[in-house]
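Email to the structure team, subject: cyclin-dependent kinase model.

Hi all, the expression group asked for a predicted structure before they design truncation constructs. Nothing fancy, just the tokens so they can compare against earlier work. One-line instruction: predict cyclin-dependent kinase, return tokens.
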Amino acid sequence: LHSKQKKFTFIIFQRDIQKRLSLPADLRLPISVVEKLNTTPILNRPLTRKNRRASLSEIGFGKLESYQKLEKLGEGTYATVYKGRSRLNDALVALKEIRLEQEEGAPCTAIREVSLLRDLRHANVVTLHDIIYTDKTLTLVFEYLDSDLKQYMDSCGNILSMNNVKIFTFQILRGLAYCHARRVLHRDLKPQNLLINHRGELKLADFGLARAKSVPTKTYSNEVVTLWYRPPDVLLGATDYSTHIDMWGVGCILYEMVTGRPFFRGCTVDEQLHLIFRALGTPRRPYHADLVERIEQSQFQFPLYRPEPFINHAPRLDVDGLDLLAQLLQFEGRDRIGAKDAMSHSFFSTLPQDVMQLTDTESIFTVPGVHLSRDPGRRTCTSHDYPYNLMKSRRQSML
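Reply from the structure team: attached below.
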């Protein structure tokens, strides 16, 4: 009884400390650290920013020596990502080490990512655990996830069960609904930026191109989204976009999960637009007046393609799935379904209703009846194989 009471007290203390120091809920502190902090007089009164920083530093946050690099996962223009281990609690982490140029300082994408992720706490958004700044590098410490959606699709021969398609799509929408409600656009959705752990929990990652949306009409750079997942209005130079920029990407990813191949694989903007219009039809007045005007103002010319029925492109989808896909892949951003509304679409009616009642930090897999099914294209699917040897592959995400 004494042991159980002590454990309960420890949990209460840990939760209180996590809340007071604004630590992520999934970050577990060692017992020795919690006990030490509970005897610290500074925690007995309201914390100033300076006191909070001092307490975090005392634990070991903000220090490179608190983390051990295990292996390199990938390297990009500005950053290298390592699989690492926290010496604070022995948990696996992902270390995104951003190189700082002396003349330029921290890249704007890194500053943007830090400022946004620091305030996001959601089960379907990757958690930023720590920030370490030195003269030469800025290191972001993230929770570690085994794989990403691209690797998951590759591992099952690009043939996912429809149940898994729904579970992954719902989690994407859930993460986006949370971000969009806080005026944050991701702007770079693609399978490589959707991380997945051994349980099947999916999290939005790589917010380097994301931006806080102060007002819907604010103008941003139109060079933002990876070409294959970029909507036509942005391809044609639209800069007044809002949350709908992310919804086109969701449609492309839904199609890719269902068919096993990207919908539009253009190498140039011109080719990308041709592929989109060949499949969905060339925009026409009065239905797509804004887009037609953009085409006329551009250097591009397109034949008058007629739209093909979505069932010709994605025959595995039922009527509800085809309807959702059509609402996501609308030419005009204002016509696309929003993330929150999409979560209530009848395509997800086979999921338990309780998935709509979850708190922000609760996983969809806490709902009874929600679990991944065996994918038709997967050769092996045992508990010993999961995550299907994906940990051995080198993830290029978060660069």
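Residues 217 and 241 are 7 Å apart (CA to CA). Residues 68-143 form a domain with the Phosphorylase Kinase; domain 1 fold (CATH 3.30.200.20). Ping us if the truncation boundaries need rechecking.
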